[in-house]
Amino acid sequence: LIKAAKKFEWVYVPSLYEFEYDSEKTKGIKALIPNLRLQFKNAVVRDFENTPVPLRPVVPFTQAVHERISVEIMRGCPGRCYFCQASFCRRPVRRRSVEKITEIAKACYYSTGFDTISLLSLSTADYPELEELTAKLNEYFRDKHVGLSMPSLRVDRQLKLLPGLVTSVRKGGLTIAVEAASERLREIINKPLKDEDLFAAVEAAYRAGWQRLKLYFIVGLAGETEEDIKSVVELSFQLAKLRKQIDGKTGQINVTISWLVPKPHTPFGWLA
């Protein structure tokens, strides 16, 4: 461990250091042996395009909750939401090409037989070639009845296009990370999303054939009021009723609410 700590700038061995504190704050750090660095850097995979991935994932004997092909299309996030540790600690943003993603999806499909492909990243809607990627997957998997799954998505201009991009592939649920029910609170957490954009994205999803949506919210945010919490219920009902304009039915909305867990290295890290 000592040799590795001296050689690599991303190796930190806690037992080789001693911290000095002033009240509740860190005053300094001291190495317990000579020639150890006091500053460190993240270990980052630079060539994300060619990083090896499992092309023959394990196929369970019984049905699993997430029985699907998972392909990581992008690592890191261009957003800077104040509660999210990954957006501050997982930079720079790195992407796989459309060709590489399609190649991985095909190989995993033929080795597993799974009928759902999940495009994973911290913010899939921010993948620059998303339209080209979904078009290629649609073309290849259209007659194989393979569905396309997206992780929780930020609502922006690209998300409004997303429902129409995957109409040819069997769709699962669509998950949208709203985080806060009011525009004021979304501004505070540095997620400036307008209600009109959210409504437009959900309406586009209904028109493209989605019947079930999942919404993510966080409570306990800085600047939150009781009215903000009540707005979660009101906003969810409004989004469910949007479907009536399409086919006369009420949309199926699943709401997931989580407490804010302050993370180190974020602007909200000291809210606990």
Automatic annotation (TrEMBL):
Query: Which one of the record's GO molecular function terms can you name?
Result: catalytic activity
CDD domains reported for this sequence = Radical_SAM (cd01335)
Name the UniProt record assigns to this protein:
Radical SAM core domain-containing protein
Q: Which residues form the Radical SAM core domain?
A: 63-272
InterPro entries in the cross-refs: Elp3/MiaA/NifB-like_rSAM, rSAM, rSAM_horseshoe, rSAM_sf
